[in-house]
């Protein structure tokens, strides 16, 4: 079984959502006293060709499905626009090599830069250099600590992933009337803040149903570790009611271990929204019943945002004239009821 590389990224959401604006009525006559809702910014048809822009792109090497989909989505979205020249540098997992690659994009004077750093802390200074040079940086997923280093951040909601998984597990077990359920949690890399956020969200959501996690173990975001950890957990627990696996890439190994053991008395929830996980859900014959998103489609949205910023446009569905400074994508729950809608957005593990 092949081993996937460690995923050191911040780990569901698909497209950028906007909230409706409500105005309060303060007088007795609604028609006379209620202020009119402000009109959306006059940005025109944002997808219509505009000023030609060059968008630089840098990301880690595609050593697993999620990162591979990030690069693929970014390039595909840029290709949809005749006014965008997409200038991607060689992906790498070496910090110094990525810094040098971003240096080359700054020297090329790109109009905007979409940057998924290997490590936000270690690439903070090069992102700041780009920003200081007048190149707006769209910081993708792994955030830079210095807000002056980026124009806009877009990424997933790790805590929200845990909350979504916890509500699915909690509600189903409550509905089934299970008392004191055995709930297992298969993490990614336990020391990462993203993993800790996911675990906290999961625990907080389960608590609202009166449940707690029975046991948790880290699987390092790889197929091999996912297989080994799951095998150990299955041996240690003769009765299981539910399992949440943080990552659909490592979930390939998780599912293999479950099938090999022939265990079917529990249900499994995944994380990220891979295509193979969705196909398992779609089959209706798998213990995998749901997955919560941390979608690499965020790279597509990042390119769209970079284009708007470089062209001086805002988001036409918003009242404000500028692209927001921070966008956190929702973690959505995919089940057999909506899997057909989400499958086209899935990535291959």
UniProtKB/TrEMBL annotation:
MF terms in GO: carbohydrate binding
Top-level division of the source organism's lineage: Bacteria
A single cellular component GO annotation: cell envelope
Protein localization: Cell envelope
Domain Periplasmic binding protein, first and last residues per copy: 55-313
Leader sequence segment: 1-24
Keyword Magnesium found: no
Keywords associated with the record: Signal
Classification via InterPro entries: Peripla_BP_I, SBP_2_dom, TAT_signal
Pfam families reported for this sequence: Peripla_BP_4
Spans traversing the lipid bilayer: none
PANTHER family: D-ALLOSE-BINDING PERIPLASMIC PROTEIN-RELATED
Family: Belongs to the bacterial solute-binding protein 2 family.
Protein name, per record: Ribose transport system substrate-binding protein
Source organism: Actinocorallia herbida
